[in-house]
Amino acid sequence: MQFAPVLHAEWLKIRTVRSLPGALCALFAVTTAFSAVAGADGASDPESDPLFTALSGVAPGQIAAVSFGAMAVASEYHDGALRLSLGAVPQRGRWFAAKATAIALPVLLVGLLTALAALLAARAGLGGAASGLGTAEQVRAVVGCAVYLTLMALLAAGLATLLRSGVATLSVLIPFILVVSFVIGDAAGTAADFLPDRAGQAVLRQTPEGTLGPWTGLAVTALWTAAALLAGAWSLRRRDA
């Protein structure tokens, strides 16, 4: 079977699983709302990074992106759905590539809209504190934010394929993103800059503070994502459906 019809079939699955469009709506709403609040609060702090403040809603909002990636894969492990999928598409690598693409494209699109809305909402609250932001910096942050959210969704998808469970995947990633990354960051110094979430979020800063720059940080996150997808693809090929 050609790739295009496989991709179309996977997109139809995502559209019809009710929780998945809801996760994308949550990504937009949570990120924009938290960024708007942060912008209003950040106007009184001249020492803060205005660009990072404007997009700080990504920190809680990325949980929705991670949930989207994990649930899109986990739905295949309910009621023998994966056996039906692989029965229709025996080439497991092609099926997995289509699944990953069907996850990445909507997250990338919603991520672009979300980052733009969050930036505009936060700028309204920041007022003069945002006057120093250049156009190139803002475009870089909006595009980089969308790419970062897409990578985190794919990281979750790869891990969910390896673990064969959305619950297990979220039980690992959500505490890691919300707690462990910051605890390790306080104890490990510059080594923590290479964790997937901290590395990728460098693109959201006007002036990155750590070891990595905006695009090198995203490259590190991309390597984490690639490792998770390769592990998931290996598991899919080696284990019975």
Q: Main attributes?
A:
mainly alpha; single chain; 241 residues
Explain what this protein looks like in three dimensions.
- The protein has 241 residues and is an all-alpha fold.
- It contains 10 helices and no strands.
- The chain has helices spanning 3-16, 19-42, 50-54, 58-74, 81-88, 92-126, 135-163, 166-188, 196-200, 214-238.
- The longest helix has 35 residues, at 92-126.
- The chain starts with a helix and ends with a helix.
- The model has no long low-confidence stretch (mean pLDDT 88).
Please give the radius of gyration in angstroms.
18 Å
| Fraction of residues in helix | over 70%
Structural class estimated from helices and strands? mainly alpha
The first-to-last residue Cα distance is 19 Å
How many beta-strand elements? 0
Run of helices and strands: HHHHHHHHHH
Q: Counting H and I runs of at least 4 residues, what is the number of helices?
A: 10
Biggest β-sheet description:
none
Q: Please tell me the overall pLDDT.
A: 88
Categorize the overall geometry: elongated
Percent strand: under 5%
Which runs of at least 5 residues are low in confidence (pLDDT < 50)?
A: none
